[in-house]
Write a structure and sequence with these properties.
- With 318 residues, the protein is α/β, with parallel strands linked by helices.
- Helix content is 47%, strand content 12%.
- The protein contains twelve helices and seven strands.
- A seven-stranded parallel β-sheet has the order 3-2-4-1-5-6-7, sandwiched between helices.
- α1 packs across α3 and α4 crosses α9.
- The longest helix has 31 residues.
- The two termini are 20 Å apart.
- Bound molecules: guanosine-5'-triphosphate (GTP) and magnesium ion (MG).
- The site of magnesium ion (MG) has 5 residues, from α4.
Length: 318
């Protein structure tokens, strides 16, 4: 299939074309840049919802319930589950940790699991590009599930329009949330497993935190409770997602977040390209021979400048 054909099919909503394009993103296929350019004008309509929180807090179970409700409204859904533990999955196999299997036979739901390791260009970049492809293929909602632990997950979350932080009575110690740095990025708090004792205390603590926190764009993050396993409270979560979407669209915050995202995207591309250029120059180009001369005369900063300015002789590009 040629690149224009692939782009056409993807924009027509063809699931196999979408799967193939996302595989190109994961493989860091150089042709992905051209494909993204072709589908660019079709993207920008999907709402991206990030779901993060401690391991086992019920993120996937909650996503499954939210998807169920969106499908009831005939919305097309895409899901990217960033799996920090599994090795590269190839996107096809869903781990046991992704509890959305009942939707896997529904063509209106496209689910991919993405491994956190092995992404040279950065997990955030891969997630961002996959989101754009899902968007261009006509998905109305894109869910992005990550375990809220490391910096790379935080970066991933910055690609969302609305971020949901899921906690539980056991993991929900408010201090943990502050430590993980996810208090600032939360647009909606969900205390899941409300069937377990201690939920109301966690709700109180979170509300207290919200009260003392800074409001982002006139939005005070609601603190909701759910029992994701039974679906209790999930309607309220779906309503809060809509309400947040409308609020940030009206206040200009959505536009601001999208500009910030574009800025991060350009930066990531520069970093990836510069690293590749440096590798070529230092390992294969004439510069690599220079390095083997008198070591005391090598000025690393000067060499780096020359590489960044394109003054190093590089081997021909692929
Ligand atoms: N008691 C109770 N258990 C729940 C609830 N929601 C989910 N669980 C259970 O909690 C466990 C973890 O649920 P997941 O949805 O896989 O949690 P997760 O946050 O996606 O987990 P990771 O992706 O591994 O971080 C499962 O055994 C669920 O059945 C709930 O509301 N109450
Ligand atoms: Mg999960």
């Amino acid at each position: 299939m040629t690149e224009p054909e692939l782009a056409e099919r993807l924009m027509a909503g063809d699931t196999r074309a979408l799967a193939r394009a996302i595989r190109m993103v994961e493989d860091r296929d150089p042709a992905i840049a051209g494909l993204l350019r072709r589908v660019r004008e079709r993207a920008g309509r999907a709402r991206v919802i990030g779901v993060t929180g401690p391991p086992g807090s019920g993120k996937s179970t909650l996503c499954d319930q939210v998807i169920h409700r969106w499908r009831g409204k005939e919305l097309q859904v895409g899901v990217i589950a960033v799996d920090p533990t599994s090795p590269f999955t190839g996107g096809a196999i869903l781990g046991d940790r992704v509890r959305m299997v009942r939707h896997t036979l529904d063509p209106g739901v496209f689910i991919r699991s993405m491994a956190a390791r092995g992404h040279l260009g950065g997990l955030a970049a891969a997630a961002r590009e996959s989101i754009r492809l899902l968007d261009a293929s006509g998905r109305d909602r894109v869910l992005l599930e990550t375990v809220g632990v490391g910096q790379s997950e935080l970066e991933v979350m910055e690609t969302a329009d609305t971020t949901i932080v899921v906690t539980t009575p056991s993991s929900g110690d408010a201090v943990q949330i502050i430590k993980a740095g996810i208090l600032e990025i939360a647009d909606i708090f969900v205390v899941n497993k409300a069937d377990l004792p201690g939920a109301s205390k966690v709700v109180r603590d979170l509300k207290e935190l919200v009260r003392h926190g800074k409001l982002r764009a006139g939005w005070s993050p609601p603190v909701l409770t759910t029992v994701a396993e039974s679906g209790e409270g999930v309607d309220e979560v779906v309503a809060a997602i809509d309400r947040h979407g409308e609020t940030i669209a009206a206040s200009g915050e959505l536009e601001r977040r999208r500009i910030a995202r574009l800025r991060a995207e350009v930066e990531a591309i520069v970093v990836e390209r510069a690293a590749e250029r440096a590798r070529n120059a230092l390992h294969e180009g004439t510069m690599s021979r220079e390095l083997e001369g008198d070591l005391s005369r090598v000025d690393p900063y000067a060499l780096a400048e020359r590489i960044l300015n394109g003054h190093s002789k590089e081997p021909p590009q692929r």
